[in-house]
Amino acid sequence: MDRVVIVGCGDIGRRVGRLACAQGAEVVALARSDDKAELLENEGFHAWVGDLNDPSMLPDLPVEESTVFYLAPPPGGGFQDPRTRHFCTVFSEKPPRRLIYLGTSGVYGDCGERAVTEEDPVSPATARARRRLDAEQCFCAWGEERGVDVMRVRVANIYGPGRLPIAHLKAGHPLLREDQAPATSRVHSDDLARALGAVAAAGRGGQVFNVSDAEPCSMTKFFKEVARLTGIPVPEEVDLERAREVMKPLLLNYFTESRILNSDKIVNELGVQWQYPSLREGLPASI
């Protein structure tokens, strides 16, 4: 990869960029402000300031013949992702060689406690997941029209340094009872960055890859393990009926959602090996 362009250069984007820099690639990153641009320049990236919400504010990024990591989430509201459409419109005449889109396992909908593969049909159950699916479909159609190899990565939950529920635990907010909290998949941020790099290097246009570690567990267990390692008192656990009364809807959904991913494909086809295959390895490296 001679040039990498990162759109949505937050925590995961910076990790992807560092890996690309280490491999000798030029890294260009889209920043939302001058302050963000300065931080990215300090990482060794070439930062361009622009706004995905306004196509007239998107700079002339050097995406032509480059590898683009599109990591920006959709805005809230509705069932479409206007940011994706703005990007495709602005860069339709000088498109990249390949684009890797970081999406969500939410597009699979409610699959109970069954591990889903990339062959499972999509059936998003929330507006947030429908926006993500819209972005996938938009990029795929654009890629076919413009000759761009578009690859999609679907992930459930991400944890790692700076991505732990410390504030929640310190505030003493209750947890859902562990016996009522279903298992869900997650992945360490470093492993996700490495997986994205592997998809860019060896993936083929049109492919979808699930990314998760090898040991799903409930969100309640995850929170309790973080508390144990940090010495924070474990909050009380409440049953589902009480949780509906005291938890915000988004947080309740976080605890009750079951999304178990089968990520054998990226391991077998691209040779990705997890540095942190479970919380036992990943949490100590995150604190």
UniProtKB/TrEMBL annotation:
In the UniProt record, which is one GO cellular component term? cytoplasm
Q: Where is the NAD-dependent epimerase/dehydratase domain?
A: 6-211
| InterPro entries listed in its UniProt record | Epimerase_deHydtase, NAD(P)-bd_dom_sf, NAD(P)-dependent_oxidoreduct
| GO molecular function annotation | aldehyde dehydrogenase (NAD+) activity
Q: Which domain of life is it from?
A: Bacteria
- Sorted alphabetically, which Pfam families does this protein's record hold? Epimerase (PF01370)
> Which PANTHER family would you find in this protein's record?
NAD(P)-BINDING DOMAIN-CONTAINING PROTEIN-RELATED (PTHR48079:SF6), PROTEIN YEEZ (PTHR48079)
User: What protein am I looking at?
Assistant: NAD-dependent dehydratase
| Organism, as annotated | Geoalkalibacter subterraneus
